[in-house]
Write a structure and sequence with these properties.
Distance between the termini: 55 Å
Strand order of the largest sheet: 3-2-1-4-5-9-8
Order of helices and strands: EHEEEHEHEHEEEHHHHHHHHH
Radius of gyration: 23 Å
Helix content: 40-55%
Number of helices: 13
Largest sheet: 7 strands, mixed
Structural class: alpha/beta
Strand content: 5-15%
Length: 323
């Protein structure tokens, strides 16, 4: 007799990424097929949705891989959204449904912008979670009680599991397969799908997105100067003079406007230039280091790995397109 190791519910909320709903459904089916003969166990997958045109409509099961049984959701997954977070609808009914299941012991998971739906429940307050690196600042501003650690691909907090990028549903799915069915079934599933095992970090994929819309004119002047001359050594005295501010005032206002100290900002500008060169040119790592203002290539390598999580050579092997 087949044994159900878990029921995983996928919540198809408005404007969610349906490809991830069906992709995870297939992933768990493949894992089940790999383990069925050896262990006679399976993952039950259910889809849940609500008729949004009726405010009183309940969230109901719309598809079931193993119908005819009572539902006991071990996990609920919120997939990514195909619209930007500021265009996502308010979903108080879905939030109440999630809170009800969580109160009954269900683990709640989110992928990418699904974290915004989960954040509306209040369940993330005081927790460290992850989302897509491009949405991290917005999530932090909207929900200041949440500790957003966007460098992580998957963060497992026991009853709450969050995953980062829009395709990180593969990382989350494989993480759950490993937990429920063991590492050998997880690896077999990953090999069959031709995807990597769960990744630990988003940092190699994240771009530096400087803030220019803060409306602090003097700080903006200093930023523009750094971007125009990334290879130049930019001292605090020089940048504060360009901004026409005292050093202490400039440091405070720059950090407030950009979220970074001036030295950190300069490092990010330089590393962004280095990433572009590693992707698009055949310059050596030392040549790239010198071109962006590092006299010591070893120091460049150290900063590069600190900000991206990988060495320059590893980054080039993964993302380089130059022939």
């Amino acid at each position: 007799m087949m044994r159900c190791v878990a029921e995983i519910g996928l919540l198809a909320y408005p404007d969610c990424q349906l490809s991830s709903v069906y992709g995870m459904t297939d992933l768990f089916r493949i894992a089940t097929d790999w383990t069925a003969e050896a262990e006679r166990s399976y993952i039950r997958v259910t889809h849940w949705t609500r008729n949004v045109s009726d405010p009183d409509a309940p969230t109901v099961c719309s598809w079931d891989s193993h119908p005819g049984q009572d539902h006991r959701l071990d996990y609920i997954i919120l997939p990514p959204s195909i619209v930007m977070p500021d265009q996502m609808s308010d979903m108080p009914e879905e939030a109440a449904w999630l809170n009800s299941w969580h109160g009954a012991g269900t683990r709640i998971c989110s992928v990418c912008a699904g974290a915004f739906v989960l954040a509306d429940t209040g369940l993330l307050d005081g927790r460290k979670i992850t989302t897509h690196w491009a949405f991290a600042d917005q999530l932090s501003r909207r929900f200041p009680k949440i500790d957003v650690a966007e460098r992580h691909m998957v963060l497992d907090d026991g009853d709450i599991i969050t995953a980062g990028g829009i395709l990180a549903w593969t990382d989350l799915g494989l993480t759950l397969v490993e937990r429920l069915m063991g590492p050998s079934i997880m690896l077999a599933t990953a090999r069959f799908l031709l995807v990597d095992p769960p990744r630990s970090s988003q940092r190699p994929f994240a771009q530096f997105l400087p803030r220019f819309d803060h409306r602090d004119g003097p700080v903006l002047q200093a930023q523009q100067h750094v971007h125009a001359q990334p290879a130049t050594a930019h001292s605090l005295a020089e940048l504060s003079a360009i901004a026409g501010l005292g050093e202490r005032t400039f440091l405070r206002r720059f950090s407030s406007a950009t979220g970074l100290k001036p030295t950190q900002y300069v490092q990010n500008v330089r590393i962004a230039k280095a990433r572009e060169s590693l992707e698009l040119t055949q310059q050596t790592v030392d040549q790239i280091a010198w071109s962006i203002g590092y006299e010591d290539p070893a120091a460049f390598r150290k900063v590069f790995k600190k900000l991206t999580g990988v060495s320059p050579n590893t980054y080039r092997m993964r993302f380089g397109v130059a022939g």
